[in-house]
Amino acid sequence: MANISTNIKIDIDYIGAACNCCPHSLDWQNGPRLIYAVTNSVALCSDIAPFSIRKTFSGHQARVNCVKWIRQEQRNSISDFYYFLSASVDKTICLWKGIDDDVRLIYRICTSLVGHQNSVTTLIGYQQSSNDNVYVASGSADSTVKIWCIANTLATCIHTLDLQNGFAITLEF
């Protein structure tokens, strides 16, 4: 039998994906990028025409409800965005860390936050320059708001607010 050697090159010419219809399913950084929830994934887009999807990232087992860039404090200004969050019907939150060089656009899950008993519906994140810890607040259909501290990829729930039968619509630090 003859040995056939073939070099195959695959280029992505088009990615089409509709945004999930949830209130917090899109976030725009202070720059040329936006992220939005697409089924169980997150799409990263350029805000420069033709507003194309540059990459998609998968990490959840169910619909993504919300996404959020994490602001990084550096002295008196906000620096580049290297992290973003995604939260899902699967009751988890993913912290994505980026190696963003405008060409490769590599983001990987560096930790998952697990602790809610129902769908996570809203979140916000912030990184302090003094200690590099990431702080996250998340609201869920389980009527709780959880405050998380992530240090060296180790996530710890540091406080839980019980809203009884209430529901967190949005959160802000």
UniProtKB/TrEMBL annotation:
What pathway or pathways are given for this protein in its record?
A: tRNA modification; 5-methoxycarbonylmethyl-2-thiouridine-tRNA biosynthesis
Q: Does the keyword ATP-binding apply?
A: no
Kindly list the places in or outside the cell where this protein is found, as annotated in its UniProt entry: Cytoplasm; Nucleus
Q: Which UniProt keywords apply?
A: Cytoplasm, Nucleus, Repeat, tRNA processing, WD repeat
> What protein family does this chain belong to?
Belongs to the WD repeat ELP2 family.
**Entries under PANTHER family matching the protein:** ELONGATOR COMPLEX PROTEIN 2
Report what the protein is called.
Elongator complex protein 2
Biological source species? Rotaria magnacalcarata
